[in-house]
Amino acid sequence: SLVVLFGATAGAYGAKLGSDERELILLVWQVVDLHSKKVGTLHKSLVKADNLDLSDQCREVSGLTPEGLGKAEPLDRVLQQFSQLVSSDLKVLGRSSYTLCSDGQLLIRQVLHPETSKKNFVLSDCFYSFYDLRKEFHTCYPSSAAVKDQTIKTMAEYLGLGTDEAEEDFGVWQVKTMVAIIFSMLSEGCNHVFSEPETVKHKYETGPWIKADFGLGFFFFFLCSSKSETVDSETVIRARGLPWQSSDQDIARFFKGLNIAKGGVALCLNSQGRRNGEALVRFVNSEQRDLALERHKHHMGSRYIEVYKATGEEFLKIAGGTSNEVAQFLSKENQVIIRMRGLPFTATQEDVLGFLGPECPVTGGKEGLLFVKYPDGRPTGDAFVLFSCEEYAQNALKKHKEILGKRYIELFRSTAAEVQQVVLNRYMSTPLIPTLPTPIIPVIPPPYTIATGSIRDCVRLRGLPYTAGIDDILEFMGDATGDIKPHGVHMVLNQQGRPSGDAFIQMKSADKAFMVAQKCHKKMMKDRYVEVFQCSGEEMNFVLMGGTLNRSGLSPPPCKLPCLSPPAYAAFQTAAVIPAEAAALYQPQALLPTTRTPQASAAAPPTVTYYPAQAAQLYMNYTAYYPSPPVSPTTVGYIAAPPGAVAAAATATHTPILPQPGALVRMQGLPYNTGMKEILSFFQGYQYAPDDYNGLIQLSDQARSVLQAPKEWVCL
């Protein structure tokens, strides 16, 4: 038997059903016995929605009113009545089992499953299997229109069924016509058989999306082969704006009703191994992906989630492959995964098991622990732990920030996708957590092209909240984020390295910049309105280099030394000389010392930071560079000095050279009245080389005498 089902929401109708996240307000159904070609009673039930504000299209098409819906039953009651009435009709027809049949995929996948998931009640099993009448019709009549172009009306017209939609109530005509279409398909000329129903997955299947069934000796071959695997780009989406604590199960719940491939949720992590609010999701086919795109700006809690197309290459880059070690760790089904962060580097499996205690036993004991390590085998301080049930996991989470050794340990919920991505980093050249932080002042970023010229293809954001980050700006831009050039978001920082409230964004064209300025000007961000102006690349460069842009026009930048900036900024051609103090303070070898053998260090030439002539501009504002998307800060890089510059610097008397074994620390947040004596007192007990500081800092005789006074030092 089939149960022919039709429904409508308070919003969009037809091909956009469910795309606006509106609630169900109508269900109409009828039982059809395929063998005897008999039908049961036709039932129509109104559904009381939480929000009774009907769209104009809904009012026009359905004829329903908020007053009438206010007297209806809520969805959970209506679904209970549905089950009872269907069972009763089946008994009358002498049948016991049935499968739903709907006009397309949208009612089941895009309306019923998402809404019941948000309202936290469970759909019966009958809603996880159904026949798509459009697909069945096209199979029976191959010469008919394509499936995506089919409607109840076009199918009826193809068969020559003379039905008048105006004669029946909304929903009743649709179900009666669907029943007539089904009987035509069962006629002797067609003898159509309903044999392969559509299915909806009950739950998201976690685990590695590529299995490794071989030993560790073949691991590197596996890495190469898994990276060369192809993923159909028509099955992948990027979800952006996720709460940072979202798991793969939360993301699967957001896409409830759609079939995600096994291990198809890959959470994106930043350089510190933490989630950045994005995920790549792989669906079983392109049809499911297209339905997922219709959930753009649907809500997860109070946040709306942006959904965009992505490529198979992007998914492979994030999901990667998995090692035999990870595959074995994740092979245990129905486990709750907890991530531990901040473990002492000397922590052993016994230490971790002892920390967790008997109240939260680990699945398989030591086999339920997975330590994350750097490529050279050093521990990162992270580990993943398996628990057999939610109760044990909750007990473990209660130990968040308790002490192990001399360190407090952070515990978070985790996912199989996160395990794959984090642990895979141990085999990559880049460690999970950088050994040194990025310098606060950008010295010379990678050579990303900054626009110049008079074309007004940029916009300036003024009056940003000081707490605003790159995510806030992209959310503020809305749909226009897709028109931003790669690496086109520039947040301007003040001389203290803090947000100035300004940002510049390079758009793909002047028309796009104009549209953004018109749409977003004086739009609210948090509790402030933000001004958005169209400007040119030349004007942007003036401001980034320290000038001002206001109603009076452009004002040239003052002659200051806020920072060094990329070589692409060439609006001012004034020659500049980097003072010795500045050159010495930003030695790349001081910030990023390299490992050297004793033999090599003895003969190594002095190393200097080389600033090309076109990069020696000393008037720029501080600027933070972000690629867009993704929204993680660009790593600061350095330009290698040519041999001639090294030789010249070695013989020059005015440019001090920091010795190779030395290292610098930067102190931030000092009181403004701090003197040399207070700084030396702060570092009392640590060894330093006074002679080197004589060359780095222009000292008075009094300060030099303080530095050179005999003290007791502890050598570290």
What integer value in Å does the Rg equal? 33 Å
Percentage of β-strand residues: 15-25%
Distance, first to last CA: 82 Å
- Give the fraction of residues assigned to helices: 25-40%
The CATH H-level superfamily of the domain at 2-199 is Ribonuclease H-like superfamily/Ribonuclease H
Number of strands: 25
**CATH architecture field of the domain at 2-199:** 2-Layer Sandwich
What's the story with the biggest beta sheet? Answer: 7 strands, mixed
Structural class: alpha+beta
What multimeric state do the chains show? Answer: single chain
CATH fold node name of the domain at 2-199: Nucleotidyltransferase, domain 5
**Quick one: overall form?**
globular
Please count the helical segments.
25
CATH class of the domain at 2-199: Alpha Beta
Please characterize this protein's 3D structure:
With 716 residues, this protein is an alpha+beta fold. Among the domains are: 2-199, Ribonuclease H-like superfamily/Ribonuclease H (Nucleotidyltransferase, domain 5), CATH 3.30.420.10; 233-320, Alpha-Beta Plaits, CATH 3.30.70; 324-428, RRM (RNA recognition motif) domain (Alpha-Beta Plaits, 2-Layer Sandwich), CATH 3.30.70.330; 458-545, Alpha-Beta Plaits. It is built from 25 helices and 25 strands. The strands form five sheets. Strands 1, 2, 3, 4, 5, 6 and 7 form a seven-stranded mixed β-sheet that branches. Strands 21-22-18-20-19-25 form a six-stranded antiparallel β-sheet. Strand 11 and strand 12 form a beta hairpin. Helix 6 crosses helix 7 (172-185). The longest helix has 19 residues, at 75-93. It is globular, with a radius of gyration of 33 Å. The model is unreliable at 211-228, 429-449, 557-646, 652-661, 691-700 and 702-716 (pLDDT under 50).
